[in-house]
Design a protein that fits this description.
The complex is a heterodimer of chains A (644) and B (207). By secondary structure, chain A is an alpha/beta fold. Chain A is built from 20 helices and 20 strands. The model of chain B has no long low-confidence stretch (mean pLDDT 83). Classes of the chains: A alpha/beta (644), B alpha/beta (207).
Chain lengths: 644, 207
């Protein structure tokens, strides 16, 4: 497709117009932007001023997973009306590791310095230590800022701040009863809960509400504690039957150093002889079984939403959030397998994570596509294999049918030669008889010399050999024979073939002139079938000369060697191939002879084909026709010449 | 001259064995690998017989027989054949084959056949010799004597012959005596036999 000149110029014109259209606003933008840098800065301040600025104070250090989850949850909160997100400031009291009053004081001072020039619209302390800190320090640090105190560990500490002015509270139902209910559903034989608070006294204090909930659920409470993690490991490995291990704490060790909770969970749940549970859903995967768990991201979002409301609306109120709003029902498939829990026993809507990778479940579209591709490919391969087998079978069939047809053809050919077989055999047999009779006569006449007797016996033996050769030769041609290929001397095969016909040829007064070099010519082939080719072609040549005067009835058999091929030519001196015959020469049942079967040349062609050779027939310029077949010679030295 | 058995066969083994058998039986044997060779080398007028394979490359048995027929001496031929083909057999016997043996050839049958053939040849040769002598004697007759001869053997009386030839009866008598002398016969019956033997047509009286 070549666009016309007009079309091209039109397109050029249009794009030029566009260029001018787009460059004007671009330039305007640049001008405005350059002149308005200070304006943009004030815009941002306005935007900040518009959205509430909220300071969140966490009790624990920011590396704890639930803290990260909560900040993630808060960060997604945006004001639906303005589309603005609050400006969050996050601070971490790290109270478990820094427990003295001095620390809280220094922390407070740092806060004061840090937020001196910031307007804070709301202070949000989350959980015990943060709440008590804010309750105590707000007067000094943020006298005007309202407070939203959030507690997810139960309502315990909220009481210390709830009564203060400009204070809202947000309590999250602890939900341990529901958690335990789920546990007993999944492990129906459970009678007790082993609670591990970790190795620090602070945590044990913090999680003291657990014991009451366990008892309320009608389960035995077994507190598992040890001064070191190693001690805990030993304890949890020998828990009584029918208990679950509840990992309620474990953030710090006895020396106040932070423990990676995930690692603690991995170690303990791995060592435990009973299933372990934890309250935070973010621990699913560390080795706990799962069940109902708190989703701290959801908690963060709810705190964020309430904080936004508290900062921007005067009607915001204190609230208690039910456990169901923040609970996630999830299990670890590996642990279910470890404790022999069938997935069918899980509550409805349970999420099962960490299933062993299953192509079908996880990537079923892709799996489907791949499976389809595999099926299609397999079908294709199967098809090709079938085709190949079919072809091979057809080949075998064809070889077998060739063998059968060739055998049938040989029988016909040999049947035609039976007369000459008898006659041929008659020669040596007659000679033997005459020799024997001569010896007898000589004996009778007492004229037999030793030398003469020896000579006679020698001749008898020679004639006997000749007779068996004739029988051999004919028998080989009469026998059924599967196509085989082995190194053979083609010249010997040709000579044998001609020898078979010698007598018949003589009877028909055809002189078969074999002009083959003495040197063997090795090809890979089937001696019987190639001999049949020679027999058929020579017979054919002889048949072609029925109308020829006997003195001119001659068949010349020659061999011409190429670099990698050998060509055997068989020429007759008959009337040649009529033009209408030539194209049908090798077709089955095509014959010009009254007694021919019409398969002789077809067999010849098929035998030559089976030897990967070629055959052609041509009329000679000086009368008669010549058939030539060419075969590849065996690689030099690869095969020794073998007698047939 | 010893009669010779001429063996023609393209098969050397057969040739050698047959030759050996015949030699052992006391015959002189000469062998030839082909009919052509025999035709070329057969010495003229030698007593003997030919053993010939009907089926041979080149000149076959029957063709050789035809070729031999052109010769003055026709040695009898024993044909050997693998499978007696009736038309060939008929042709061969018509052409004067003495025997037609079918392979495998029984040695004694062959020897008997050879004996017969040689006997036949001897007879043939004697007959041919006899005939040759008769013809030679006949050739001695003058034209006038032959005219008288054919009339006499036709049963004419002397005076009928005389009238026929317009000569005197006495002259006829002289001619008759000369004819009997020349042909070496002693009676009119002998004269008639001679005429039959050499195939002279008698001449009946025209009057």
């Amino acid at each position: 497709m070549t666009p016309s000149i007009a079309a091209v110029s039109h397109r050029v014109g249009r794009s030029a117009t566009r260029w001018w259209r787009s460059i004007v606003p671009l330039m305007l933008t640049i001008v405005v932007a350059a002149s308005g840098t200070t304006a943009a800065a004030s815009d941002r301040e306005e935007a900040l001023a518009a959205s509430p600025q909220i300071l969140v104070v966490f009790s624990d250090d920011p590396s704890q997973s639930w803290i990260r989850e909560m900040t993630d949850g808060m960060n997604v909160v945006t004001d639906e009306r303005t589309g603005n997100a609050p400006a969050w400031y996050f601070e971490y009291l790290d109270a478990l590791r820094f427990q003295d009053a001095e620390h809280e004081r220094e922390f407070g001072a740092a806060m004061r310095d840090k937020y001196r020039d910031r307007r804070l619209d709301l202070i949000v302390p989350i959980a015990g230590n943060a709440i008590t800190f804010v309750a105590a320090a707000r007067e000094e640090l943020w006298p005007d800022a309202p407070v939203l105190a959030a507690e997810y560990g139960g309502a315990g500490t909220l009481a210390t701040i709830a009564s203060q002015p400009k204070t809202l509270t947000l309590a999250f139902e602890y939900g341990l009863p529901a958690v335990l209910a789920t546990v007993t559903q999944v492990f129906p034989d459970i009678t007790g809960v082993a609670v591990s608070y970790g190795v620090s006294a602070a945590e044990r204090r913090r999680e003291s509400g657990v014991a009451a909930d366990v008892r309320k659920a009608g389960l035995d409470l077994l507190e598992v504690s040890a001064p070191t993690l190693a001690g805990l490991v030993e304890r949890v490995a020998r828990l009584p039957e029918r208990t679950v291990l509840f990992l309620a704490g474990g953030q710090i060790d006895a020396n106040g150093r932070a423990l990676p909770t995930w690692r603690m969970c991995e170690t303990l749940s791995q060592a435990a002889n009973r299933p372990a549970i934890m309250i935070g859903s973010q621990f699913l995967g560390c080795g706990i079984v799962g069940g109902l768990m708190r989703d701290y991201t959801k908690i963060g979002t709810i705190i964020g939403e309430h904080a936004l409301a508290a900062a921007s609306r005067p009607d915001a109120a204190s609230e208690t959030v039910p456990f169901s709003a923040i609970a996630t029902l999830a299990f670890d498939a590996r642990q279910l397998a470890r404790w022999g829990v069938a997935e069918s026993r899980l509550p409805a809507d349970s999420l099962v994570a960490y299933r062993p990778p299953s192509l079908w479940r996880d990537y079923h579209r892709e799996a489907m596509i791949i499976a389809t591709a595999v099926v299609v490919q397999s079908a294709l391969i199967a098809g090709l294999l079938y085709e190949r087998r079919h072809r091979r079978r057809a080949e075998t069939e064809s070889r077998r049918s060739l063998a059968l047809a060739a055998h049938a053809d040989r029988r016909v050919a040999m049947a035609a030669l039976t007369g000459s077989i008898a006659h041929e055999l008659g020669q040596p047999l007659g000679a033997i008889l005459h020799n024997a009779s001569a010896a007898e006569l000589m004996l009778t006449a007492d004229q037999l010399s030793r030398d003469e007797l020896r000579e006679i016996l020698h001749d008898i033996r020679a004639d006997d050999d000749r007779a068996s050769q004739i029988v051999q030769r004919h028998r080989a041609m009469m026998q059924k024979h599967e196509l085989e290929r082995r190194p053979i001397d083609l010249h010997a095969v040709v000579r044998e073939g001609v020898a078979l016909l010698a007598h018949d040829a003589a009877r028909r007064r055809v002189d078969v002139d074999v002009r083959l070099p003495e040197t063997p010519c090795v090809v890979s082939g089937d001696p019987v079938l190639l001999q049949q080719v020679v027999v058929n072609l020579v017979t054919n040549a002889a048949d072609a000369m029925i109308q020829t005067p006997p003195v001119r009835r001659r068949v010349v058999v020659r061999s011409e060697s190429g670099p990698h091929t050998v060509t055997i030519s068989i020429r007759d001196y008959g009337s040649g191939l009529p033009p209408d015959v030539k194209p049908h020469l090798f077709e089955p049942y095509f014959t010009t002879k009254t007694e021919g079967t019409g398969i002789g040349l077809t067999i010849v062609r098929r035998i030559i084909d089976a030897h990967d050779g070629t055959i052609e027939a041509r009329n000679n310029s000086d009368g008669g026709a010549t058939f030539r077949f060419t075969l590849a010679t065996a690689a030099h030295g690869a095969v020794a010449a073998q007698a047939i | 001259m010893t009669p010779t058995v001429y063996v023609v066969d393209d098969d050397e083994g057969i040739r050698k064995a047959t030759s050996r058998l015949l030699t052992a039986a006391g015959f002189a044997v000469s062998t030839y690998p082909s009919g052509d060779r025999l035709l070329a080398e057969l010495p003229p007028n030698t007593p003997g017989c030919i053993i010939l394979d009907v089926c041979m490359p080149g000149l076959n048995g029957l063709e050789l027989q035809v070729a031999l027929a052109d010769r003055e001496d026709r040695p009898p031929i024993i044909f050997l054949t693998g499978h007696a083909e009736v038309p060939d057999t008929v042709r061969a016997i018509r052409s004067g084959a003495v025997d037609f043996l079918t392979k495998p050839i029984d040695p004694s049958a062959l020897l008997e056949a050879v004996e017969r053939a040689l006997a036949q040849d001897a007879r043939d040769r004697a007959n041919r010799e006899h005939h040759r002598q008769l013809v030679a004697r006949y050739d001695r007759l003058t034209d006038r004597e032959r005219q008288v001869f054919v009339r006499l053997i036709g049963g004419q009386l002397n005076k009928q012959v005389a009238a026929d030839l317009h000569i005197t009866e006495r002259t006829i008598k002289l001619h008759r005596a000369r004819i009997l002398q020349k042909l070496d016969v002693d009676s009119m019956a002998g004269l008639a036999r001679f005429a039959v033997e050499i195939g002279v047509e008698p001449r009946q009286s025209t009057s």
